[in-house]
Amino acid sequence: MVQINSSRGKPKSLAVLIALLKRKLIKAFSDNRNVLDECALINTRRIYLISIIAIPLHIISILLFAFAKSEDVTWRHGIIGSHTVLLIFMAGFLLASRKLRKRTTPNMVMFVLQYVLVAVIMTLGIVIVVIDQMVMTSITVFLLICIIVGIILLIRPLASLIIYATSYMVYFVLLTLTTTDPLVLLSNRVNGVIAVGIGFFLSCILWHYNYMNIMQMRRIEAQQKQLEQMAYYDPLTDLPNRRLLEKLIKREIASIRRYGHETAVIILDIDNFKSINDTYGHPMGDNMLRQFADFLIANVRKSDTVARFGGEEFIILMPQTSAEEGCIFAERLRKLIMEKHFTVGSITLQTTCSFGVSSMRDIIDCDSLDDYYFLADRALYMAKQNGKNRVEKAGASAGV
Question: Does the residue 351 lie in any domain?
Answer without folding.
Answer: yes
